[in-house]
Amino acid sequence: MAAMANVVSDFLAPGVWHIGLLIVATARHGTGEARVLYRGLESWAASNGASWLRLGVMQGNVRAERFWERLGFIQTRTRSGVQMGRLTHTLRVMVKPLAGGTLEHYLSLVQRDRPELQNAL
Asked: For residue 112, which of 93, 91, 97 has the smallest C-alpha distance?
């Protein structure tokens, strides 16, 4: 397998789509293929009703954090104590508008992503 993506439509609010996973085979890292895959995913999501893309990235995974930031995602909050297997992580919740929305509009749709709720939920 070269790559895989998992996306949930209308997650937490209509028009908010959540990227649960976007992974590219290690041998393909640094080739630009992840960016191409993401651009296709973003275009597909926007043409099917997504106004926002949302995701969680593990804090400290610098390569992944930079990848999403370069694509225009911004952090709304962090979530500490997130169990993944045997490990506990802090996640950076990040969003990107696809239809020109403001962060304040997004936060009115998805209250749980408000920065003042750090470490809650």
From this structure: 93
Instruction: Quick: pLDDT tens for 71-95.
Output: 999 999 998 888 888 989 899 999 9
Residue with tokens 């296709």: 40
What CA dihedral angle connects 52, 13, 10 and 63, to 10 degrees?
40
Predicted TM-score (pTM) of the model is: 0.89
Single out the residue of 40, 10, 46 nearest to residue 22, CA to CA: 40
- The C-alpha atoms of residue 95 and residue 1 are separated, in whole angstroms, by 27
Residue 12 per-residue DSSP state: S
Count of other CB atoms within 10 angstroms of residue 18: 19
